[in-house]
Amino acid sequence: MRKTNTRTGFTLIELLVVMAIISILLALLIPAVQQARESARRTQCRNRIRQLALATQLYQENHSFYPPGACVDVNVTTTDNNGSWGVHGRVLPYIEMGNVYEGIDLAVGWDRQEPIDGLRIATLICPSDVKAYEMRDPGDDKMKLWATTYGFNYGTWFVFDPASEKGSDGIFFPNAEIVPTDIKDGLSNTLMISEVKAWTPYLRNLSPAAPAPSAVPNGASDVEALFSSLTQFKNTGHTEWPDGRVHHTGFTTTLPPNSLVHYTDGSTEYDEVDYNSWQEGKNGAAGRPTYAAITSRSWHAGVVMTALMDGSVRPFSENLSQDIWRALSTRNGNEIVETGY
């Protein structure tokens, strides 16, 4: 009886066809999975900003005014860099961190207060910002810190003048005691919080001979032209969540969201760089005025997530005009902003 050969395997061509089909399916599936994950992270980011906005409103209800960006005693001449807590530290009781708040002293510089050593507060971090999960260790027995990716509205450009103690046209600046009735443009037309990127490079502190740049830059190239007059380059912006200075706890609307600002430090090129003319409060009344271009930036494609002073949370496009973005940051500029966000 003749035996019939029965083929039990795949031919090479069949195997290649199956592999090709699987590769095509994976190519279609992976972006969909990544998109779903980013959508979930974006929703989580939105919820965290909402929590922070609610905490700020609760602070105002309990203190009658919104939290100041910092508390600066201009009569004290000091070169201390970490003398005042920012908004993030002042709203701790309202983001379920009351136990930490009870262990700190807001009247004392934050950098040697042990309750915040290595403390990572999820509410302060956008889950899409991968660099925010890099802890900063400043050494010298100072507290190790995690970043924040949510900045508070310090206005358009001018931040603080220690000589006159005048503050910005925004909401949160040194020694501010802004109340809701001060916001003439309306709570729904004024920014409270916007995203910033952890570990943003920045330059600070004018050289003694350089004049204060009071004119508001018209664009990124104008900001870049100011870098040569500054004395310090740092690549640690927004890595000190307790710090009240604008390059750590705030943002300004000098430039539209996600603007590229270039700077070369020796052999390294950076394309998202911030500017602070003088650390607020440094050297007391003898210090210089602070002007800052601290740009709102996000890892969410094409937008930055924001909260307005009424507590509403929404994305703003990076293509929003510079004029509208600046109008949204002022508290009494007499602008009623109409935008599709």
From TrEMBL:
The lineage of its organism: Bacteria, Pseudomonadati, Planctomycetota, Planctomycetia, Planctomycetales. The chain crosses the membrane at residues 12-33. The keyword Transmembrane applies. This is Type II secretion system protein G. It comes from Polystyrenella longa. Keywords: Membrane, Transmembrane, Transmembrane helix. Residues 34-320 form the DUF1559 domain. PANTHER family: GENERAL SECRETION PATHWAY PROTEIN G, TYPE II SECRETION SYSTEM PROTEIN H.
